[in-house]
Every structure is written in structure tokens, then in C-alpha cells.
Amino acid sequence: MACPEDLVRSYLDALSDGRLDDAERLLADDGTYWMLSKRAAIPMQAWFAGYRKAADALFTKGISFTVTGLTVDGPRVAAQVECHADLPSGAVYANAYHFLFEAGEDKLTAVWEYGDTLHAEQALRG
Prior knowledge:
The chain is 34% helix and 41% strand. The chain has helices at residues 4-16, 20-25, 44-58, 117-125, and strands at residues 27-35, 40-43, 64-73, 76-86, 92-93, 96-103, 108-115. Strands 1, 2, 3, 4, 5, 6 and 7 form a seven-stranded mixed β-sheet that branches. The protein starts with a helix and ends with a helix.
């Protein structure tokens, strides 16, 4: 069984390095991803497909995720995370997140994402 903290760090590192296939392999096929902007959980694989499209269109120069704090409680990892990306429009995407990850044997099975939705809307959609 993989350490939940290591799974979270590996996932965020893969996203930061642009290794999307590696990041996706860390997500459970039947997992769920809850987003504050939708106030609902969606299938994790559907969320990641949308992330890939955004990464291709918006994060052409990459995006970095920096963990500023972690709290581990069994299979759950609460993570404070800051991200940074220079967007093609010249805008900067610099959001602050709180994620709650739930880990299974060797994959992330659930994610709850809480970020600055106003900043995301302004930076990503103008």
C-alpha cells in the first residue's frame, strides 16, 4: 500500500512537471472529484479529461503546484497548495487551494477542491 502523503505529492509533482499521463495513473478509475464551482462530485476521469483540455489551451507554459502544508489522517490528506501559471493572454493564474484527498491502496479515490473561484473566473475566462 502506498503512503497517502506520497501519493498526493507524486500527483501534484506530476501535474507540475506536465507529466499528465503519470498524474492520471494515480487516479482511481471509479474515483470522484468534487469542485466548489460545481458544488457536486463528478467522475474523476471526466474531471481529468477536462483538466487536460485546460492544460493544453491555458497552461501552455506549464503550471506549478507548491504544497505549503499537509495534514495526514489515515487515508485522508488535507493539502494547502498554491499554483502559478503564466497564461497565453499575459495574465497570471496564481490560485490558492485547499484539497482533501482520499487514498486507496495505490491511487487517489476522491478529491475535494476548494479554491478561489473568483480569481479562477477572472484569470481563466477574463
